[in-house]
Amino acid sequence: MENKGWESRFLEALYTKYPKRSHLVEALMLLLKIEREAVYRRLRQDVSFTIKEIVMISSEWNISLDGITGLSSGKVPFFMQRVNYIAPSEQEVEFLRYVIQSINHFKDFADTEFMNICNVLPRQFVAGFKYLNRFRLFKCMYQYGNEKMNVPFSKVDISKEMNKVAKEYYKAIKNVPLTNYIFDRMIFDNLVREISYFHSIHLITENEKKLIKTDLLALLEYISEIATHSCYPETQKKVNIYISHLNVDTNYSYTYTNQVSVCFVHVFDKFEIHTYDSTMVTNFIKWMQLKKRLSVQISEVDNKSRIEFFTKQQQIINTL
Predict the structure, then answer these.
(1) With 148 labelled, which of 122, 255, 262, 309 sits at a CA distance of 20 to 30 A?
(2) Do the beta carbons of residue 122 and residue 170 sit within 8 Å?
(3) Which pTM was predicted?
(4) What does DSSP assign to residue 258?
(5) CA angle 200, 201, 207 (to 5 degrees)
């Protein structure tokens, strides 16, 4: 290893991610939430990056501190960001806004790809439908909230701030240049059973069930439109939809660009663990891409399978 200080090697790693200085400056301003001149002072080494900033950068941009320091832990770091989607703290709202800013930033990179393998309807869709989004949070409260007090659906009060964030996220995600979804073929069956269960124990009223059903039918029609044209109707960005022949055990996703790539495993319905480790991300992407071999594509190419799938899902939803 060359006889360089770790600060110099850290800066080299930053320029590897963003070779153009202007792009690096913009990315650091967005990530660290500091002014442009403050970024330039750090790049000139007039001011050192703080420990917190170094950890944040290395985590978000998959920069190995082992390689920079010359030490090796031999471990793959995974991180989990907990978020209270009903009553979030200021820090949690700030994190969600950072996610939205990141999506809006990477929409300008033509190679950006998002892929989601899911057995429950992903937030990318649900966030745009008021009662479905509320049901998702209601179910999480029931499963992981206060076991001595079951809050009915009518008492789930999402703040105006979080409703606004949900709408912003729903809009931003449609600007990703390429998106792939692989759905478990039971994805709507499972959701309908859950809604029926909560209705049967009187936590969802008859009228609330009808409102959720209306949202669900509207979402199904929206996904059908995406599958027919193989793109988001609002932005015309490419979308491929597949239906898995095998059961999907949980939700997985990755986001890839030449600058940053990350893979996620979604846990507890609303949280996710993620890593930027390059080897893990590469293997994760390969594994997820192989899932296409066990699926049928219903977007754009297979009219018969697409019509059969959406007709069946509508029949399932109408049983509510």
Answers:
(1) 122
(2) no
(3) 0.76
(4) S
(5) 60
